[in-house]
Amino acid sequence: HGWSEALAGIKSPHVKYICPHAPVMPVSLNMNMAMPSWFDIIGLSPDSQEDEVGIKQAAENVKALIDQEVKNGIPSNRIILGGFSQGGALSLYTALTTQQKLAGVVALSCWLPLRASFPQGPISGVNKEIAVLQCHGDCDPLVPLMFGSLTVEKLKSMINPANITFRTYSGMMHSSCIE
């Protein structure tokens, strides 16, 4: 609900916005307490174990949303995925693994999950020319700017670097700002 409210002030009337909710599940990092989460988070360091099964299942769920919109008459190449934190991570992963050609990704304060599973060098999929807007606060204590920097460098090796925009925001923590 928070993101749909945030988008209300900048929505274009000719654009359909879908803001799905992450399911509630136990999260290892949260002492296994249930919270909204697209997949389990085991740790916050670059070498932390990742929930590969959960990430792949969450990506399939997003792909099902894309498929539904295509069935509703929206060409996939007019669909942009976006998200904040885990949602941004899921958006990047989904865009790089789907067989549907997408228009772009907005990835806020996030990282690329399962980055080691991607090939070294350019991907061969339909989204090798996808546009990516990646934004990150330079004071983010939860998903440090280093994660964003590592992600943008990995993306530049996988997709057309000319289509990647990486912006940082001075003083911003794990949140968003009007810019």
From TrEMBL:
Domain Phospholipase/carboxylesterase/thioesterase: 1-177
Biological process, per Gene Ontology: fatty acid metabolic process
GO cellular component, one term: nuclear membrane
Catalysis performed (reactions): 1-hexadecanoyl-sn-glycero-3-phosphocholine + H2O = sn-glycerol 3-phosphocholine + hexadecanoate + H(+); a 1-(9Z-octadecenoyl)-2-acyl-sn-glycero-3-phosphocholine + H2O = a 2-acyl-sn-glycero-3-phosphocholine + (9Z)-octadecenoate + H(+); S-hexadecanoyl-L-cysteinyl-[protein] + H2O = L-cysteinyl-[protein] + hexadecanoate + H(+)
Entry annotated with the keyword Oxidoreductase: no
EC number: 3.1.2.22
GO MF annotation: an example: carboxylic ester hydrolase activity
InterPro entries cross-referenced by the UniProt entry: AB_hydrolase_fold, LYPA1-2/EST-like, PLipase/COase/thioEstase
Pfam families named among the record's database cross-references: Abhydrolase_2
Top enzyme class: hydrolase
Keyword Transmembrane helix: no
Subcellular location: Cell membrane; Cytoplasm; Endoplasmic reticulum; Nucleus membrane
Keywords per UniProt: Acetylation, Cell membrane, Cytoplasm, Endoplasmic reticulum, Fatty acid metabolism, Hydrolase, Lipid metabolism, Membrane, Nucleus
Assembly and interaction partners: Homodimer.
Cited function: Acts as an acyl-protein thioesterase. Hydrolyzes fatty acids from S-acylated cysteine residues in proteins such as trimeric G alpha proteins or HRAS. Acts as a palmitoyl thioesterase that catalyzes depalmitoylation of proteins, such as ADRB2, KCNMA1 and SQSTM1. Acts as a negative regulator of autophagy by mediating palmitoylation of SQSTM1, decreasing affinity between SQSTM1 and ATG8 proteins and recruitment of ubiquitinated cargo proteins to autophagosomes. Acts as a lysophospholipase and hydrolyzes lysophosphatidylcholine (lyso-PC).
Family per similarity comment: Belongs to the AB hydrolase superfamily. AB hydrolase 2 family.
Protein name: Acyl-protein thioesterase 1
Organism: Pandion haliaetus
Upper taxonomic lineage: Eukaryota, Metazoa, Chordata, Craniata, Vertebrata
